[in-house]
Structure formats: structure tokens, C-alpha cells
Amino acid sequence: MVTGAVVTAPGLSSYLKSLKSTPVEPSVEHLISLLKRRQIRNSRPCAVATLALLSRVVGEFKGRDAAKLVERIRQIGRRLTSAQPREVVVGNIIRRVLGLVREVVEDNVEAVTEATSDAGQSHPAHHDSLHRPQLISSISTFSPLKHASAEPMDSSSHYSENMSDSGEMSKRPPLLTSHTSYAPTSTAPLVNSLFGLFSHPDTPSASNTPTGVQPPDGKGTLTSLNLERLADSSHSRFDLKGEVMNGIQEIQDELEQTDDSIADNALHHIHSNEIILTHTASSTVQKFLLAAARKRKFTVVHVETHPHDHTATHSILLTGKKRDAEDDEEDSWKPLRSAGIQVVMIPDSHVYAIMSQVNKVILATHTVLANGALVAASGARMIASAAKAHQTPVVVVSGLYKLSPVYPFDIDELIEYGDAGSVVPYEDGDFVDLVDVENPLYDYVPADLVDLYITNLGGHAPSYLYRIVADHYRTEDINL
Amino acid sequence: MPHATLPPPGFQALILCGPGASFTTFTSSPQDFPKALLPIANRPMVWYPLEWCYRMGVTDITVVTPPESLQAIEATMSQDRHLTSLPAPRPDILAPKDLTHEMGTGELFRLPEVQDAIKGDFIVLPCDIVCELDGAPLADAWMIEEAGLGAASGGLTESGKIPMGLGGEKLGRRGGLGVWYQTKGEGSVKGEETDFIATTPLPAPIVPPPSDSLRRNISNLVYSVPTDTLKDITEENKCLPVRHSLIRKHGRIKMLTTHRDAHVYFFPYWVIDMIQRNESFESISEEVLGWWAKAGWQDGLGEKLGLRQIFQSAESFDGEMDSSQIQDTDIDVSTLSSTWASETDSAPTVSLASRVQNSNIPQAAQAITKSSKLTVPPILAYVQPSDPSYPLIRRVDTAHLLLTVSLRLAKLPSVEEAGKDTASPFAHQAKIAHKETIPRRCRVEAENSLLAENVTVEEKTNIKESVIGTNCKISEGARLLRCLLMESVEVGPNVQLTDCILGRRCKIEGGSSKSDDKTVLKDCEVQDGQVIAWGTEAKGEKFMRFELGSDGGDSDGGFDNEALMDEPQEGAS
Amino acid sequence: MPPKGKKAQGSEKSKAQDDERDEPLQAVILADPFETRFSPFTLEHPRCLLPLANTPLIEYTFEFLANAGVEDVYVYCGAHRDQVEEYINESKWMSQVASPFSKLELIQSTSHSIGDAMRDLDTRGLLVGDFLLVYGDVVSNLPLESALAQHRARRAKDKNAIMTMVLREAGTRHRTKAQGTSPIFVIDPSKDRCLHFEQMPNKEQSHFLSIDPLTLSDHQEIEIRQDLIDCGIDICTPDVLALWSDNFDFQAPRKGFLHQVLKDWELNGKTIHTHIVTDHYAARVRNLHAYDAVSKDIVSRWAYPLCPDSNLVRGQTYRLQKGNIYKEDGVILARDCVINPKTVIGRSTSVGDGSIISNSIIGRHCQIGRGVKIDGAYIWDHVNIGDGSIVNKSIIASEASLGKRCIIEAGALISHGVSIGERKTILGTQRITRSKRKRDNSDEVVRGEPDTAIVGAGGSGFEFRDSEEEDEDEPVDELVARGGLYNLASLSFSAESISTLNSESEEDFQISHQRSEAGSFVSVGSVDSATSHHAHNFDHDAAASIYDSLVEGHESANIQLELTSLRMSTNASEHQVRRAVVVAFVKRITQLIKAGTSVRDAVAQVFGQHQDLLTRTMFDKNASNKTDQVDFLVLLQGDLVNKDGGDSILLSAATKLVEMDVIEDDAMVQWWEGPKSSEDEGMRKVREKTQQLIDFLNQSSEEEDSEEDEEDEEDDDSE
């Protein structure tokens, strides 16, 4: 007899399982359909799934031609993002991996061409700082949902001048893990840039040389150079696949450790007898608070985010585990209460009333956008504004993988509208007939409502995010 | 009494002391011993509803009884230690002069005395209800669902009429509430009478009632009929026809076949009016409830019952009153709440293709009826879930029930054991009034037996699951199993009684265990003062003065069914 | 199936292994429910490909199955198989990479009813274990785990629990509920068992759901539920198919199969259960009303994630904007056109200046002219709408075109390729098509002559008149439609109040006992409109069968046999039997007359052969008042009202009946004097001619009377 469990609706876990046994093409399609059906949703599962898929892709990839690999990943990326543009994380992961490939290539290329072309090295170095603002602008020419439009090659050629610059960036250890050790928790851009100076003696005061403008032909040469590099990388004997795989492995590790590395900062931000307000069921926030709870006693006010997230919220408070299917692989932890923290759950409507007593607001997020704004579970904006009104600091905890180079032009398009049925019972015939229900799943919280971001690198001011973006994503990959 | 402290809910309770048509054995002479005084677990029957009222804080109690039984009841009221132990004020006893035992409850309420007695919203109780369930939550539920935010008893105006809409009555008038209980399950008695009811869920409140609230079990009564009447219907046309108009009106109808009407009603004042207008209403439980329930959904039935006049005359009466009064009467407080949901009588909507829109004719039909729309306030039903954990509700109107209920009550842990607060309201101070009087060499199972004041138990007796009234004498070697002994019964030596009910002052003669003949009674009922000679062996008999025994014997059979049928009316036959 | 495709199913498969399941979950899609609800659109295109919110219906069904984790899918096509096949083959469901199904098969059958289809399915023996039975028009985001789990648990306990119906709770009144008739489920909530099923026609008011006393005695608690959306999702076991084949006369899955199986539960002991869901979305696009409702639901995101902007179909690029406006890429909007909320617009559709569009769904490549007002309309692909036209709640199928300044009133249906000239007005009741069936129940269609009166000069298309509106699970709506809506309503209402009076006049508490009278009261006027469910169900089959056997000239004994069996099965009343007989006979007679035989002969032929059949429908031969015979005559009369030459037929029929002594004289007289025979104009007209017969009878009867008197006297003497 068939057992009931057979037909558990497909989700992340089932997908990961299937991935082993399935060739790439179908599993891409499969992921697409899962994304479309919202059977995989929320940042983390999406990230995990995408990464898993990519590692499979790279694994399957024949030949050594980096350019081909890049193209392949891009093309998959385009399909995925078009399937579910609102899950920006998918795009982020794709870009990360793309960046990874390029780094690998360039490292080796440099290993080869170290002696030969010094000019190629020093010359881009001048434009290092000069390209930063331009980098932002280049980001800002891009809106997430216009994905299909951009041609891959021309975009890469268009930004190719930055190629080299990121080339030298790539001298830093990948993933900038070194940052975590130094980065002071209340980071100002200044500090980090200084740090940048120190860590790269080969980019001296050149930072403000005006002579950065490229002659048009220069671009051409560079492009050719770049391509030729990529090409000859195929001749050079190094294990492209292996290194990329390692890179992906690192990203996977990062994903796993994100919460903990964020939680490490907890003690800097949460002090004894504080009243912390937070909302939605977010493992990141929970672990963050738990970390603090080990040393300090404080009170947590939890907003239940009715209607679409309250069940998860309740269960996370009671059992410390979300009930969602895709979270079964997510390790559960003991709820705050058992850590001796007093937790008060309030409906969303009470936020403003209680805000005056709150010392700090800690928000989880869905995505962090390049301009420091964030897309978070609905209710976040209300909380943030309330906090603003009461001058309560708003801290956003977010893994780096949620940090995306996307600039929000059309905010509406970033917001997903969910099931009206979760607000009003569908049974209520007359109501259904006469009333339209809009149930936004996410809120757009503008940057000026947020005071501090805590990523696994530590804390950053919103205005500084662009820098981290620049460090993590290659400009030529921003348009997939 | 936990609720004694509360301000009285302003109800007035009517306890109808009926005939006990099915207690032929014990209530043959209503003038000196009416049904209301039959002892249930050593307490007179009427004590239970009285206690129930006091428990819920209702002190304005009227006991309605036929004149002939008046003295008996009054006497017991003043003498019986249980009744006297009830808190003040004493209930006033009403004996309308032309109230006879044959009269149905409907008529009863048309009697001028009763009419005058009722001043506001009232509770109707039979004298034979044993209701462990606390009444206060019921009253609360009723007020929340029906009476809106105002006082429960619409304040009487000098002219003795209740102003409309007072206390934010929804839809002008407030409805009533009845109680039904499950007859099946443990403690069920074979052949117990049941009522067939159909209910529909109430519109879900915006704020769900707390998990322990009775409101979860309260629904809207749309149809109610005694099961045997139902049988006639189904036999008549081979099936139970259910009007489409009902189904169309209520998407979800729940039908209960094994529940029984506890005959506990919370009625708004206007019900009196309705009963008054409809001479044909024989009994409350059948006609009044049945028609009222039907009027809720059957178009035009409300008019036929004269409800329109009842309501609108009252309204016009309002109009005449001084304007200030009108002001606050017109306000429906509940609508002021932000979470107020109106009844869903929305206008028909136009739908896509004409070929389609033609199909919602009922709405078209409604549109036609709209003009004369009369909203009949609902009659609610508290249907107790059939889960043994719920408190006991039972009507004791057959000898069987009398026995079983008594024995069940006997099992209740006494106040001594359970402690003052946790003990059930029906628990006795002690299972055995005077332990010391029980000799050592005899077996009395205290946990499931009740022994009242000065009961003499001799040696070598064996008493199991029995209730023994005051001044009884159990002689040597007698064996009692599941027996109910009313007061001052004498059980001779070596008598064996099982499942017997022994009336007051009756005597079972005994003999020596040596003698070859013996007395063994099973499922017998012995009438008051009867003497059973030594050597009687009987099963399922009734010992009575003059031979009613035969038809009394099959008390579940033909003749008694009529009795059973108007039993729920509690009419005094 | 190539290995790649197989492996594509890794997800379910691997899960499968983990749960050591032995058989895949199978599903059968009935792509064609063999109905004409969607005509005229279904003339050219299969129903399951009609666009709902610009996505073909069947896509939703597939999505639903994919969600449920189904593996093998069998699509049962009826009409237009080629199109369905073509579509599916190029859809992602067939493609080995994308499709979540391991197996997707199209089954073509010659069947003309669901019943045939099921029986055919049974013979093929494709289905091994439990399977899902869904229609090609189910829209649902419901996860089936719990339902399946419960079903299997039940199966494990009791082999006889053969089927579980998934029902969505939806209040007493709901736009998405079936409108023509509402299904009524009688359920034992403790066991979720369905005890009884009936279709409640919303047309007549005064009918009764009859519950078997046994059900009452057997169950402590039962629920009568009319607040359910029957979304046609059944979890079946192979036994179901077996049952279908055992009962060759089952046609409709609910009215036929379900009703019957529940009815003879005592016989075969098979139980059918319900799974009532209160969350998620589940509905069937069973007719145009549902089409409207479900579209609304989808647009206002009740069916999330089944929304236009999840772009379920390849190549869709819808995006959601505030106020539930969905626009695909490449929509061209003039600067000052207004797009109001709840609107969907497909790719490269262009909207001209000053046009106002609200609550509408517009397909791809449409050209909306200037100053057009569209409200609540459903416009499919490649539609041209001329400047200044006004389109209200109506459906305009693909490739149709409207000239300038047309007015489409609410309710109009304009089928594929129709083109309307300038300044025409299409009424709400009109259904314009361009093609018609060659013959009845044949799929090939031919293009009909344009009816310029309607579509105007240069237009193409004519008003669609459907030959037969067979109704499967619920009567088709336009049975009521033709105009007489309100008077019908009032009539039925009066019937209602009458029976209330009666039920009140005799103080008893049955919900009503006036059933049969009330029933016949309504039914006389319209014998063949479905009066009550039974009656309807019975009439339909009985009349048909009798008629057939009449045509084939069977022995009336056989007819009688068949009739009784049918009658038993639907426990129809004598009255209904008579009605059936009358309907059949009259039909036959009229047919003969058309064929050229004279009225007299026709009547003689038909009635003559079947004397005893007739006699056995009336049981009051020697009763004093001949209610049965009168009833028969009334029915006859009522049926003849709307036949041409009805009066003469009635006359000769009546005479014949008297000759054959099937109807006794005084019965005839009673009928004549009875109120019903002259209750309205039509009835009176019909019976005019019969006057002569009556006169004749009266004379004769008087004589008889006198004789009888004498006899009586004699008797007295003898005592």
C-alpha cells in the first residue's frame, strides 16, 4: 500500500535529494518550476538550492574554457532569475559564483602573465577609487526585473575596464574572511578604506589621480586582452573546475556559518536589561538573540507578523523551529524562553504603542539592496518608522548572501503579493465578492530608517553597503 | 457557591412541578406526594433545579405547581433539611387555581397568574432536571450572543412592557436559548426519550470565544421535534423531507438524533406574548420551540405566528414613548463596535453571462419577498458535547433514570473526601451519615453508596451501589445491589434486592436464612407503604396498591408512551 | 519513455524509494466533460484549452497535479483531440526535461459520456493503485497530502471505502459555488462519510431533500451541507472503475454514480467519504458562471500562487502592479488610456487613446481602439475592438473583431472569429458564433451563413442556437434563461408559500408533507424541466428508454419491466412514472405525425400497442375518485400544451384511451371538471376540442347513473 508520506509536496529537501540523481538540464527546469510554484521560497532555501545546482553545473561542465563556463552559468542564472525575479538571492549567488570563476581564471592568468605585463597591472590600479562611484552608477543602471534585456558579452565588454581592477581586488583572500577579524563592529567607511590602504600597499596615494579616462581604443585592446586571457586560460594547465568547486564549497560553508558569525557580534549590540523588538520567524535573529542570551538578560518583544508569517512565528517562539517544510534540514535550536529570556509577543498593531519602551529594534530581512534599503517581511516598515519616531535604533541582521547589487527602481515590483485567503476566509462569499484584499508579503524599508547592518563581516552603516557590494560582486556580472 | 457573590443576572426562574406520568408507582397520589418531591440520591427532586438557580445567582424563583400538590410541596419546602439549607430568599410557590395536571406547558403559560408572575426575561426549568453544569456561563453565553450589551432583563417600563432594542438587542429583538444533552454514552438508559434537532452554526465571531467558553457549543436551532413524532413523519412519507428553502438559507445543517431537550430555556419576555397569541401551542418544548425554530427560516411563518404584531406593536409603543427613550432604544450598541459584522443578507449580484445570471433565481425570489422581511430572533441551542468529562445533565422522568441518576450521584466523592471547593455541587457531606452506626461484620461499599441520616444497618448485610434514604432499616443478612430506598424503608433479614426501587415506608419482610423459601427481587418497583411478604420472588414487577401493575409494568410500552410524549412538556397530567 | 525523461523524475522517485512505495500516484484528467456548457466556444476548440486568465484551463490542472506530486497522468480527450494533443505535446508537460510527470498519456475514446469514459478506462486497466480523478478544468493550489493520507488510512481499515471527494467549504452564498443547482452532501461528520447526495435545483423553491429514515437511525449526528464547492477532485480506488462498469447506465459521476452508489449502500456496502478543506483554493470551471468567478478569484489572488504573475506557462512575462493589474511585456498603452484595477493584459496588446479598461482580462495581440470602454469583459487573443465600442461583462473569443461604436451588452458571448460590423448592439442573451455543428453530437463543424441582421454588414457570424443542451451534473442554465426568469421565480415562490400554508394549517411538525402536490403543481406547467432531483433524474432516463423502445416497437411487457427497474432505482413516484410515459408517448406520436401518419392512426398505433403498459400506470380502476387517471390526463394535457396540433392529439388520445377503457368515463369527467385541467390559458386551449368527447361521455354517464340507481334500489329490496 502506498504510504501517505509519498506525496509530500516537492520542496527544497526533495529538490536537493533529486539533484544527486538528476542531470543538469532537468534539475534546472525543476528548480525553475519549484521557484515559480513558490515551493522553494525565502532567501536561505533559495540560496542553498541555487548553490547546489551550480555546483552540479560546474561539476558537469566539460572542457576547460572559462569563458564557456561563465556563459553557461550566466545563462542558467538568467533563466532562474526570470523564473522568480523577487527572490533576489538567486541572482546574488549566481553572481558570486561568476565572480569566483573569474577570480580563479585571473589568479592563474596572473600567475602566468605576472612577469610579462606590469603595465596591465599598475595601470588599472590608478582607477581603483575612480571606478568605485562609476561602479555604483553601473549598478544603478540595472533593475532586477529587466534581466532578460542585457546581452552578456557586450555588458562584460562594456565594463571590461573594471576587469583588471577587480583583478587586483582578487588578490585579497576570497570572501574577504580576513575582514571579520579586524572589522570593528561600528564600522565607518573611513575605517575600512584605511584598512584597504594598508592591506594593499601596491595601491598607494594613486587613489585620487584624475587621469583615469580610457581612450576608446583602450577599451578595445583591454577587451581583447581580457578575452584572450580567458581563452588562453584554457591552455594553461590548472584545474579550473577544482578551484571553482572549492570556491563554491567555501560559499556553502559561508551560508552555513552565516548565522553563527553574525551571532558573534551579538554581545556588542545587546546589553543587559534592554528591551529588544523583533518580528517574523528568522533563524538569524533567533540565533543572534540566543548568543546574547548566554551572557546577558534582556527582554524580547516579538511582533507576530500576521497574517502570512504568524504560524511560523508562533512555532519559532514555542518550539524554536519553523514549521515550514523546507526548514527540516535547518538545525533547530532551543527557544529563547528556555534560555531564560522573557519573550512578549504582540500583534503588529501594538508596535507603535510599545515602541517607546523599546531600546533596540532588530530586524531580519529578505534582501538588502545596494542603496542600503531592504526588503523584509511585511510589517518591517511600520516597525522601522515607529522606531524612527521614537528615535529607537534599528539594527538589521543579514547574511552577506542577502546583500545584492540590485538598485530598487520600481519598488512595487520587488514586493510580492500573497494569498488573499490568509487575510480573509475564502468562505465568506459576500466579502470575497465585494472586497479586494492585498496581502503584501514584503515591505520596502528605505535606507534612512535603518541605522546599522550586521552581516557576517560585522556591522556597517547603510551608506557603506555599496562598498561591500563592490567587494563581493563583479561589476560585469551585475547584469546577468 | 462561587457565583453567589455575583450580582444576580436579573433573571427570573420558573420551575414547573409536573405530574411524573411515568412514575405511576410512586406518584399515584399527587396531592400528598407529587413527583417534585421524589428523592434523587436522598434529596427531593425539586432541590436540584432550585440549587442550580441559586448556584447561578438567580434568586427570583417561582415554583409553579397544581393546587392539589401545593400543600405537599410547601410542607416539604419548610421541613426538608436539604431544601431549607438552600440560601435565602426562599422561592415563592405559585399554584394557579385552574392549573390541572393534564394541562400542557403552553396553556400553563397562558394562565393569568403565570402571565402576571413573569416580569422580564425568564428561565424555564422542569422540576426533574439534574444539571451539574453551572448556569452562569450559560446565561453569560446567552447574553453575549443574544442580549447584546444591555441588561439581561429588559427593564420594565411603568406600563409593564419591555422597550424595544434596549441593551442593544441585535435586530430589534433578542432570541432564546435551550439546552440539549446527549442521551447515549455512559449512564444512558435504554428507551430514554430523545428529541430530534437540527442546528446551524452561528456566524463565526470576529473574536473567537475562549476555549473554555460554552459558546463554542452553541448553535442556532432550526428544527426540533420529539423523536417519536419524527418517526411518524418518516413513516408517513418513507423519508424525512427537508425543505430546500431551509438548505438554501443555511449552508450547513447539523442533525442530532440522540440528544434530548433538557427543557432548560432562557426566554426573552416577548415569548410570553407569542404563547399568548397562539392558542394552539400545547407545550413549550414541542410547539413553541418547533414553530419558533421554523419561523427563523420559513418565509411567512413568522407572520402566521403573529410575531410581526408582537414586535411592531411594541415598536409603535416605543414611538409613543418620550423621545429620549426612543433615542437610546434606537441605538444598537453592537453596531457601534468596529468589529461588527451585519447579517449576510446582501443584494443579489449580477453575474457574467445572462445565461448564467438567470440561474440565481432564489435571489430573484428573495427580491420579491424582500418587501415583507421579518427577522425572527433566533432560538439558540446549547448542545452539550457527548464527552463523559462534561458535567452531568439529565432529566429524571422514568423510574429507570431515577435509579441510574441516583446511583451515579451516589458515586460522587463526598465533600469530606473531595474538599469544599472541588466537590461537585451535588456531593453529600458524607457518603454515610453516621459511620459509627455501621456494625463491623457487614459490607457497605461507601465509594458507590449513600446512606442518609439514622439508617440502621444490622450485621452481615451487604450493600453495594445503593442509595438508602433516612430512617431505613436494613436487617441482618440482607443483600442490596444497585437499589434505591426512599425514606423509612424496612428490609427484612436475608432479603436479596437487585436493581430495585423501594417507595417510602414500604416493608420487605424477611425470614431466617435457614427457611427454604426466600425473598429475591430484581428490577422491581415497590410502591409507598407496600408490604412484600417473605418468600416473594419477583423480576421486573411493580407492587402497587390497586393493580395498575400491568400497564405500569411495561412502562416503556404503549400506554405510557403518551405519557412519555407529553412528559417533556412537563404538563401536569 | 527515454531514460532521461525517467530520470527527470528524480524528485518524486527518490522520495518514493525513501518511503518504499511500490506504486506511483496516478491521475486521470477528464479533459472533456462531455457537456455543452461552453458552447459556442467549444465548437471549434476543446474546452480544456479555453484561456482562463490568459492561461489554458488544462495548465491549471497540470499544475495542481504537479503540486500533488502525481507521476503518471492520463488525459482523456473527447472532442478536438488533435488540438489537445498538439498543445500538450509542445507544452512543458510533455518535454522530458521540464515535466514533473514520469508519464503523460493521451487517451482517445469514442465515449460520449463520462460514464463511457470510465468504463473504457476500466477495460484498459492502466490504473494499478489509487488514483486521482480530476476534470480538465480544476483550479486548485491545494496540497493533497492530508487527503491522500486519510484516504489510505481509511482504505487500510476498510476495503470498502472506495472514494474520497475533496470539497472546499465556501459559505452559504459564494460566487464560486455551482449556481444552476447546488450539490447537497449529507455527511456523517464523525466518519467523514457521505451518506446521501442530491442536486438541489435553485430554480424551484418548493422541493424537498428526502433523507432515508435509516440514515437518521444509524447515525447519531449527520450534517446536510450545501456550502461546499465540489471541485471535482476525487481520490479513487480501482474498485470505482469496476463499479462504473458494473452499472452500465451510470453517466454522470455525481448525479449518476455517487447518488446511486450511496443509495444502494446496503447492497454493495461501498462507502464514499469526503475531505472538506477550509483553506487553500479549489474550484472547477464547470460553466460560464464559474469561469467568471474563478477568473476573478485568480486575478485577486485567492488562488495564489496560481496568479498571472507567477508566469506558470513558458514565455509568459506577467508583472503585477498595484491594484492587481497584471501586464505582460510589450503592452502598448496610449498615453491617456485608463487601466483600472483587476485587469490582465497580454503581450503586445495595444490600447488606444481614452479607452477605459476595468475588471477585465485581455489576451495577447489585441487591438483596442480609441475611446473604448471595457468593463468586466473577458477578451481572448487577437481581438480587434473598434473605436468607441462599449463592452460590458461578456466573453469575446479569439480572432473576433468588433467594428466601431459597437455595444456589447452584459452577458453576450462572441465566439471565435466572429466579426461584428459597425454600430451594432449585441444583446445580453445573444451568443454569436461563426460555425455550427454539421449534425448533432458530431464534432465536425461547418461555417454557417452570416446573419447580417445581427452582425451587421460585412460581419460574419450568426446567433448560436444549440440543438440539445444535455446536462450532466447540473441542468444547463438557459433552461431557465429564456426571458421568463422573474415570472418563474414568482411562480415557484407562490408554490412555496402555498405549501407553507398547508404545512401550517395542519399543526404538525414535519418540514413539509405537501411535497407531491407542490411538486406536481410546479411540474404540470413544465413537465420536462427538471422539477425535483429524483423526478428529473428519472424522467430523463425513463422517458428516453420508453421512447426508444416505442420506436423499436418493443413488447410493452419489456418496456414495463425496464420502467419498473428504473423506477425502483430512483424510487420515483407513480406520478413520475406516468409523466415519463406521457412524455415518451407524446414524443413518439408527434414524431409519427411529422412522419405523415394522421393524428388518429398515430395515436391508435402508439396507445393501442401498449394498453397494459398504460393501465399499469394507474391503480384506481375501482376507486371512486380516479386521482391517478386524472393525473395522467393532466400530464398528457400539460405535455401537449406546447406541441402544435396538441388539441387534436389530446382529443383523439382521450377518445382512444376511453375506448381502450384505460381511462374510465367518470375519470375523464373528473379530469375535465378538475381545476388543473383548466388552470391556465394554454391548458384551456389544448382541451377545447376534447369538449365534444366530454359531452358524449356526460350523456352516457347519466344513463348509467340511472341504471345504477335502479340496481341500488333492488339491492335494498333484497335486504
TrEMBL record, chain A:
<dbReference type="InterPro" id="IPR037171">
    <property type="entry name" value="NagB/RpiA_transferase-like"/>
</dbReference>
<keyword id="KW-0963">Cytoplasm</keyword>
<dbReference type="GO" id="GO:0003743">
    <property type="term" value="F:translation initiation factor activity"/>
</dbReference>
<dbReference type="InterPro" id="IPR051855">
    <property type="entry name" value="eIF2B_beta_subunit"/>
</dbReference>
<dbReference type="Pfam" id="PF01008">
    <property type="entry name" value="IF-2B"/>
</dbReference>
<comment type="similarity">
    <text>Belongs to the eIF-2B alpha/beta/delta subunits family.</text>
</comment>
<dbReference type="GO" id="GO:0005851">
    <property type="term" value="C:eukaryotic translation initiation factor 2B complex"/>
</dbReference>
<dbReference type="InterPro" id="IPR042529">
    <property type="entry name" value="IF_2B-like_C"/>
</dbReference>
<keyword id="KW-0648">Protein biosynthesis</keyword>
<dbReference type="GO" id="GO:0005829">
    <property type="term" value="C:cytosol"/>
</dbReference>
<feature type="region of interest" description="Disordered">
    <location>
        <begin position="146"/>
        <end position="177"/>
    </location>
</feature>
<comment type="subunit">
    <text>Component of the translation initiation factor 2B (eIF2B) complex which is a heterodecamer of two sets of five different subunits: alpha, beta, gamma, delta and epsilon. Subunits alpha, beta and delta comprise a regulatory subcomplex and subunits epsilon and gamma comprise a catalytic subcomplex. Within the complex, the hexameric regulatory complex resides at the center, with the two heterodimeric catalytic subcomplexes bound on opposite sides.</text>
</comment>
<dbReference type="GO" id="GO:0005085">
    <property type="term" value="F:guanyl-nucleotide exchange factor activity"/>
</dbReference>
<dbReference type="InterPro" id="IPR000649">
    <property type="entry name" value="IF-2B-related"/>
</dbReference>
<feature type="compositionally biased region" description="Polar residues">
    <location>
        <begin position="154"/>
        <end position="167"/>
    </location>
</feature>
TrEMBL record, chain B:
<dbReference type="GO" id="GO:0005851">
    <property type="term" value="C:eukaryotic translation initiation factor 2B complex"/>
</dbReference>
<dbReference type="InterPro" id="IPR051960">
    <property type="entry name" value="eIF2B_gamma"/>
</dbReference>
<keyword id="KW-0648">Protein biosynthesis</keyword>
<dbReference type="InterPro" id="IPR029044">
    <property type="entry name" value="Nucleotide-diphossugar_trans"/>
</dbReference>
<protein>
    <recommendedName>
        <fullName>Translation initiation factor eIF2B subunit gamma</fullName>
    </recommendedName>
</protein>
<keyword id="KW-0963">Cytoplasm</keyword>
<comment type="subunit">
    <text>Component of the translation initiation factor 2B (eIF2B) complex which is a heterodecamer of two sets of five different subunits: alpha, beta, gamma, delta and epsilon. Subunits alpha, beta and delta comprise a regulatory subcomplex and subunits epsilon and gamma comprise a catalytic subcomplex. Within the complex, the hexameric regulatory complex resides at the center, with the two heterodimeric catalytic subcomplexes bound on opposite sides.</text>
</comment>
<feature type="domain" description="Mannose-1-phosphate guanyltransferase C-terminal">
    <location>
        <begin position="447"/>
        <end position="532"/>
    </location>
</feature>
<dbReference type="GO" id="GO:0003743">
    <property type="term" value="F:translation initiation factor activity"/>
</dbReference>
<comment type="similarity">
    <text>Belongs to the eIF-2B gamma/epsilon subunits family.</text>
</comment>
<keyword id="KW-0396">Initiation factor</keyword>
<dbReference type="InterPro" id="IPR056729">
    <property type="entry name" value="GMPPB_C"/>
</dbReference>
<dbReference type="InterPro" id="IPR011004">
    <property type="entry name" value="Trimer_LpxA-like_sf"/>
</dbReference>
<dbReference type="Pfam" id="PF25087">
    <property type="entry name" value="GMPPB_C"/>
</dbReference>
<dbReference type="GO" id="GO:0005085">
    <property type="term" value="F:guanyl-nucleotide exchange factor activity"/>
</dbReference>
TrEMBL record, chain C:
<dbReference type="Pfam" id="PF02020">
    <property type="entry name" value="W2"/>
</dbReference>
<dbReference type="Pfam" id="PF00483">
    <property type="entry name" value="NTP_transferase"/>
</dbReference>
<comment type="similarity">
    <text>Belongs to the eIF-2B gamma/epsilon subunits family.</text>
</comment>
<comment type="subunit">
    <text>Component of the translation initiation factor 2B (eIF2B) complex which is a heterodecamer of two sets of five different subunits: alpha, beta, gamma, delta and epsilon. Subunits alpha, beta and delta comprise a regulatory subcomplex and subunits epsilon and gamma comprise a catalytic subcomplex. Within the complex, the hexameric regulatory complex resides at the center, with the two heterodimeric catalytic subcomplexes bound on opposite sides.</text>
</comment>
<dbReference type="GO" id="GO:0005829">
    <property type="term" value="C:cytosol"/>
</dbReference>
<dbReference type="GO" id="GO:0005085">
    <property type="term" value="F:guanyl-nucleotide exchange factor activity"/>
</dbReference>
<dbReference type="InterPro" id="IPR044123">
    <property type="entry name" value="W2_eIF2B_epsilon"/>
</dbReference>
<keyword id="KW-0963">Cytoplasm</keyword>
<keyword id="KW-0396">Initiation factor</keyword>
<feature type="region of interest" description="Disordered">
    <location>
        <begin position="673"/>
        <end position="719"/>
    </location>
</feature>
<feature type="domain" description="W2">
    <location>
        <begin position="528"/>
        <end position="707"/>
    </location>
</feature>
<dbReference type="InterPro" id="IPR011004">
    <property type="entry name" value="Trimer_LpxA-like_sf"/>
</dbReference>
<feature type="region of interest" description="Disordered">
    <location>
        <begin position="1"/>
        <end position="24"/>
    </location>
</feature>
<dbReference type="InterPro" id="IPR029044">
    <property type="entry name" value="Nucleotide-diphossugar_trans"/>
</dbReference>
<feature type="compositionally biased region" description="Acidic residues">
    <location>
        <begin position="701"/>
        <end position="719"/>
    </location>
</feature>
